[in-house]
Amino acid sequence: MRYLGLMLLVGCGLSACQSHKTVEKQQLQTGQVVSTLDQIDYEKEDSLVSSKLDQYKVGKFSVGSWVNQAPGQYFKLVKPQNPQAAVVYFYRPDSKWNRQEIIATNFFLNGKRIPSLISNHYYWVELAEGDYKLSMSRPLTVVHFQKPKSTFFSVKAGQQYFVKYEEEQFRGGPNGDASLLRVGPLMQMPTRQGLKEIGMTQLKTPGLNFVGELDSQGELVKGSEKIDSGKYHASDDVHTTVPFKLWNPLTW
Predict the structure, then answer these.
(1) How far apart are the first and last CA of the chain?
(2) Contact 216/32 with Cβ under 8 angstroms?
(3) Residue 247 half-sphere exposure, CB side, CA atoms within 13 Å?
(4) 31 pLDDT higher than 90
(5) What is the model's pTM?
(6) CA separation, residue 240 to residues 100, 146, 245 (Å)
(7) pLDDT mean over 80-101
(8) How many CB atoms lie within 10 A of CB 182?
(9) Who contacts 204 (Cβ-Cβ below 8 Å, separation ≥6)?
């Protein structure tokens, strides 16, 4: 009898643990959309060591339009692979200044490097609803020493966003809307204004997908990260609205 009370307590404890696990499994619903990127560690963000590691490092770099003249498909709105994903379009308009760039600025999303923007270039990123950190710095080839410019932003499921990289000032900003993201030469544009500006840019790097889903066991299922848009052919962008006909001199 002296151990009966102890056995009852242990049994109740095990039942409570099992119940807690059942609740956790119920919360992890099948098909729940989550980010495949590393989560932001806000405590680490405030660390001096972390900021120095972000600033001084050796890594990859991208050449600018002075070297890279590859054409691409003109802008088209995309349908995200997951209907609950947010789509963020990054773009950089064409200009003489942009075309003379040798080394392009590096971009990092939650610490993961994403494509640099060169002249007349756009691509898109699919994200799960949540908070993200976007940072950028221009390296000297593989050596990074410039203090990165960073910003935090949030996206909502099913929404689309337009973010422009603009080192020149003559094109202006997002109509003076202070609620939109802006850090250095990177600025979020209102949808109407963004669509107008991005229309003539070209897809020179694949779109990216950072959206995953949880299965019935709570395991993360990742989709393809790079979104293959197919091989580009310049003829794909040529369309005639009126069928071409040879001139017939007998019609005079």
Answers:
(1) 117
(2) no
(3) 2
(4) no
(5) 0.75
(6) 33, 48, 12
(7) 92
(8) 17
(9) 68, 70, 71, 72, 118, 121, 123
